UniProtKB/TrEMBL annotation:
Pfam families: DAP_DH_C (PF19328)
2,4-diaminopentanoate dehydrogenase C-terminal domain: residues covered: 183-349
Organism domain of life: Bacteria
Record-linked InterPro entries: DAP_DH_C, NAD(P)-bd_dom_sf
Protein name: 2,4-diaminopentanoate dehydrogenase C-terminal domain-containing protein
Organism encoding this protein: Mycolicibacter heraklionensis
């Protein structure tokens, strides 16, 4: 019989709730605890909070009670937006020191542990040693499509000279509070130019770029950030907000990783509210298509390589894929030597259901 892992969960936001549903359905995972941060959720059954039947696990709002749980791994889906970095690191350290491994899509510097400041990195390593535990951060982007998948692609080319990762994310179904205004949708280009702070997104995307560079034997000297906007020619209406004609409907963030004075790594992410074409930056996913997220990886080398990677179906398949990638890492993380791990050191395998029938 396959090993069963005792899981303690944190996070009931959009992706955290998807992860909680996955945990409750997975035959190799057993939910033993659940930490929440709002009083109205404390004491409620975790199944109810996930939109599923009750499972007999009550959510708690006390970190002290949570740390006393007997769990193999904590699935840490708490948001770090608006939180002090030291608070996040201290919470992770407390969990690790209590003897629990952690898998998480949160806190971007963790995607490349060497991107952490020295103090935070040593605190986490010390907590791992104390608790004989490990920490691993992963997801979709940042994570996997922006780093490790490109490393795998480049391994098929002799002495690659440049690697490019481009992604298009249709956002019309996004209803996350603050998302619409944060990206500048519905603003005029003039308003956007006044509000945009150059370099503000480098901290978000630098860790996977550094990990990608290390994966192919490069060291980044610098990372340059650029922002492009595309304008709506007609009015659009979404649950998240209105986009009048003449305002921003699509945003592209571009990053160049500089190696020996040359831009050798390129990453760009396109967020577009309409499914239809309002820009010509990357092939547009056709309205009604099963594809909801497209990533294109190109490698200049011998031979040149192009990989198109799509997530299909559903409103936000990136969230579902992120949750799956994190949870599928649990067996490998629990088996790993204590420490702060990166995707270059860990093979994440899918945990397939032994009882699911094959599609007809």
């Amino acid at each position: 019989m396959a090993q069963k892992y005792r899981i303690a969960h944190i996070g009931t936001g959009y992706t955290g709730s998807i992860a909680l549903q996955h945990i409750l359905r997975a035959p190799h995972l057993q939910l033993v605890g659940h930490l929440v941060h709002s009083r109205d959720k404390a004491g409620r059954d975790s199944g109810e909070l996930a939109g599923l039947p009750e499972v007999g696990v009550r959510a708690v709002d006390s970190m002290a009670d949570f740390l006393r749980l007997d769990a193999d791994c904590v699935t840490y889906f708490a948001s770090w937006a608006g939180r002090d970095s030291d608070e996040v690191i201290d919470q992770l350290c407390a969990i690790l020191a209590s003897g629990k491994n952690i898998v998480t899509p949160s806190y971007n510097p963790l995607f490349d542990p060497l991107s952490l400041d020295g103090t935070s990195r040593e605190k986490l390593r010390s907590a791992c040693r104390h608790g004989a535990s490990s920490l691993f951060a992963t997801g979709i982007a940042p994570g996997f499509t922006s780093d490790i998948l490109a490393v795998h692609a480049a391994s098929m080319s002799e002495l690659p000279t440049k690697i490019s990762v481009q992604e298009r994310i249709p956002c019309g179904a996004y209803r996350v509070p603050g998302f619409f205004s944060a990206l500048g949708f519905g603003r005029t280009p003039e308003q956007d130019a006044q509000m945009y702070q150059p370099g503000a997104m480098i901290g978000h995307f630098a860790p996977p770029l550094r990990l990608l560079a290390r994966g192919v034997g490069w060291t980044l000297d610098d990372i340059c950030e650029y922002r492009d906007v595309a304008i709506a020619e007609r009015h659009y209406s979404f649950d998240a907000g209105q986009i009048p004609a003449g305002t921003i409907a699509s945003v592209r963030m571009r990053f160049d990783g500089i190696v020996d004075g040359q831009p050798r790594l390129h990453f760009s992410s396109i967020w577009s509210m309409p499914d239809e074409a309002v820009d010509d930056w990357l092939p547009v996913i056709s309205p009604g298509s099963a594809s909801r997220r497209l990533t294109r990886i190109t490698v200049d080398g011998n031979p040149p390589i192009q990989v198109d990677f799509a997530l299909n179906g559903g409103e936000l398949p990136g969230s579902t894929a992120t949750a799956a990638r994190v949870l599928n890492a649990i067996p490998a993380v629990c088996a790993a030597d204590p420490g702060v791990l990166s995707a270059l050191e860990l093979v994440v395998a899918a945990q397939a259901s032994p009882t699911s029938p094959l599609p007809q």
